[in-house]
Write a structure and sequence with these properties.
The complex is a heterodimer. In chain A, a hairpin with a 4-residue loop joins strand 6 and strand 7. By secondary structure, chain A is α/β, with parallel strands linked by helices. Chain B has 3 helices and 9 strands. In chain B, a hairpin with a 4-residue loop joins strand 6 and strand 7. The chains are: A alpha/beta, B alpha/beta.
């Protein structure tokens, strides 16, 4: 499928009651870029791809079968998306808030060295955004959090 | 955060995240590379790698973050896995590990062969492999759909 090979091997697919509104909102609030939309006859979105840096999401809807938007399900979600920024986390939060995101946790530097904020979008899907502000070793993270950290070297490592 | 990771990753909620990690290793070949546990051995955070991508496997850490198993099997998001070879063998491996195959491998109009699988707590995973190059015109003609951005 066209230049699919440039996308990473895993991507989140997110269900919305109004996928067209979501596509517009995600561009305005978070800075996603739309690269592909496949529309059905009924105004629904069968498939779409929005990119952010080297990552992508698929926005589809309205929900069918076992799928549901959190907006129709008491605000509950079974998955969320984490986006890692290289810079500008606080400004990103303000942009999202201005677009109508509900900021759940304000930007704060975490004991593991990332600055993070979380928010919900126009249909209550949860998002988290992070930016590394201090590179820490596993030992330093263990000391700061009291948790046990096990990491395995990977070929990317 | 390790800098080889991409900008974006899914985080999925499970009642029993450690069992989920074992399933995802067996079914899809995901590799656990980070596990953070509290003093009682409870999972706080974990990350699994597949190719160039990462998924986070967590627990039900708030009233609004639930396993599909806790909310009638519903899914608000799913994860798509794109592979480059042997989709049918991938499906058989997932089935053998206990995945419920909701849609058997089938070649779609857009040139990808795909299958759909439900894991033991009800998360739905889709897996695809490109097997044919299809143009936008061909895809529109085959389906009657309107496609924007397929170059």
């Amino acid at each position: 499928m066209d230049d699919r090979g440039r996308l990473p091997s895993i991507g989140p697919l997110i269900w919305y009651r109004d996928p067209q509104a979501a596509i517009a909102w995600l561009q305005a609030a978070f800075g996603f870029e739309l690269r592909l939309v496949v529309e059905g006859d009924d105004g629904g979105v069968i498939h779409s791809e929005l990119t952010f840096g080297d990552g992508y999401i698929m926005v589809v809807g309205p929900p069918r079968e076992k799928a549901v938007s959190p907006a129709a399900w008491g605000g509950r979600s079974t998955q969320s998306v984490h986006v890692q920024l290289k810079a500008g986390l606080d400004e990103h939060c303000e942009r999202a808030r201005a677009a109508g995101a509900h900021v759940v946790r304000e930007p704060a530097t975490q004991p593991y060295g990332d600055r993070v904020y979380t928010c919900t979008d126009l249909e209550d899907h949860p998002w988290s955004f992070g930016q590394t502000v201090k590179v820490m070793s596993d030992g330093e993270v263990e000391q700061a959090t009291g948790h046990r950290v096990t990491t395995k070297e990977t070929t990317h490592g | 955060m390790a800098d080889w990771r991409g900008a974006l990753m899914s985080a999925a909620c499970y009642q029993d995240p450690k069992a989920a990690i074992r399933f995802l290793e067996a079914a899809f070949g995901f590799e656990l590379f980070m596990l953070i546990e509290d003093g009682e051995g409870g999972l706080v955070h974990s990350e699994m790698r597949f190719g160039d991508a990462v998924v986070m496997i967590g627990n039900e850490w708030s009233d609004d973050h639930k396993s599909p198993k806790s909310i009638g099997g519903k899914n608000t998001q799913t994860v798509h896995i794109q592979i480059t070879t042997d989709l049918d063998a991938h499906c058989e491996r997932a089935r053998a590990a206990g995945g419920e195959i909701l849609m058997e491998p089938e070649t779609q109009f857009y040139g990808d062969r795909t299958y759909r699988c439900r894991d033991p707590e009800g998360h739905i995973w889709t897996v695809g492999q490109t097997v044919a190059e299809v143009s936008r015109e061909e895809a529109e003609a085959a389906t009657g759909l309107k496609i924007t951005g397929w170059v």
